[in-house]
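User: Here's a chain of 205 residues. Predict its fold as tokens.
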Amino acid sequence: MNIIHEYDFVVKYGQRTNSSLKRKICVSFLARLFRQKKQFKIAVVGLDSAGKTTMLNFLRFEKNIETLPTIGVNVEVLKRENVNLSIFDLGGQMHFRTLWGTLMRGASAIIFVIDSADRDRLVEAKNELWKVLFDPDYPDVPLLIVANKQDKEGAMSIEEIVRACNLDDPAKMGIRSWHIQPTVAITGQGVEEAIKWIVIELDKI
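Assistant: Prediction complete.
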């Protein structure tokens, strides 16, 4: 019996039951009501080819699936513990980045994916990251930075990325909760740990 049918049962048959049974039915209904999973919107952004969609595919299917560049937005729903996450995977090509602000609207957390092996585009990634950080609509939204492709030769360490992106400056980061997670999306390494951090942060809301 789902929660709607259970409610109908309470309304329809409540008058016919004794008070003890009626209380048990109501307690059961209320318990199920408050166990309903919380719903959250998560925005996933980053430069094109950083591995955003690959990461989401591993979270959904627990294996690497060949992907094409995201055109516009791709929406996936993940169920984790006591939450349902509607994940908006936003295209990272230059002409799609102007839409990030609109598509991120209402997000409870932001995931920014960086290609750790692409040193040539780190400054570009940093600039886009800081646009997100300084967006007045998201001053205190939890931020997860995913340092992807850690298996690639020459991949930057977490410490390098933190320094290069000025993430170690408390004055710039403000009161926002943030975390940087090393990953290898094609194998799933670090991916589940990344989403667990998001779930823990959202559970505080």
